[in-house]
Amino acid sequence: VQLAESGGGLVQPGESLRLSCAASGFTCSSYGMSWHRQAPGKERELVAFISAERSSTTYADSVKGRFTISKDNAKNSVYLQMNSLKPEDTAVYYCNARKYSYNYWGQGTQVTVSS
User: Fold this and answer.
1) What average pLDDT does range 79-86 have in this prediction?
2) Residue 55 pLDDT > 90, yes or no?
3) What is the rounded distance in angstroms from the CA atom of residue 107 to the CA atom of residue 95?
4) Comparing C-alpha atoms, which of 91, 95, 93 is closest to residue 23?
5) For residue 44, what are the CA distances in angstroms to 15, 34, 75, 113?
6) Strand partners, 68
7) Cβ(8)–Cβ(19) under 8 Å?
8) Cβ pair 112, 17 in contact under 8 A
9) Contact of 106 with 31, CB cutoff 8 Å
10) 91 pLDDT exceeds 90?
11) N or C: which end of the chain has fewer CB within 10 A?
């Protein structure tokens, strides 16, 4: 079982990034999938969630209207489109898959927003 994030990098405020999370060893369409982030000195926080059955989504208030979570069942992948990035979005972003007692994490990808 593996979750592999990619797409992080250094961008300027106002720019966009798209994070990808490729799942292997399980079918992510049957799991609740989410993106979390952790900034230095802060606790890890939920950024966005997409449900298994109906693909309903929820977002942290801080990213509503700027970030969009989506999934491609054919590619067994989940994405996070991040627009209008702000310096406070700087963090390591982690992909998570959860179903019953199963709880998987990726290794994280660094996103840095700085001028």
Assistant:
1) 98
2) no
3) 8
4) 95
5) 23, 12, 27, 18
6) 81
7) yes
8) no
9) no
10) yes
11) C
pLDDT tier for residue 87 given thresholds of 50, 70 and 90: very high
User: Can you read off the two tokens belonging to residue 77?
Assistant: 């992948």
Match 């994070």 to its residue by tokens.
Answer: 19
Is the pLDDT score of 53 beyond 90? Answer: no
Question: Token pair of 107, please?
Answer: 């290794």
Question: Which residues contact residue 89 at a Cβ distance below 8 angstroms, ignoring those fewer than 6 apart?
Answer: 37, 63, 82, 111, 113
The whole-number pLDDT of residue 20 equals: 98
DSSP 25: S
Task: Give residue-wise pLDDT tens across range 3-21.
Answer: 999 999 999 999 999 999 9
CA distance 8 to 99: 26
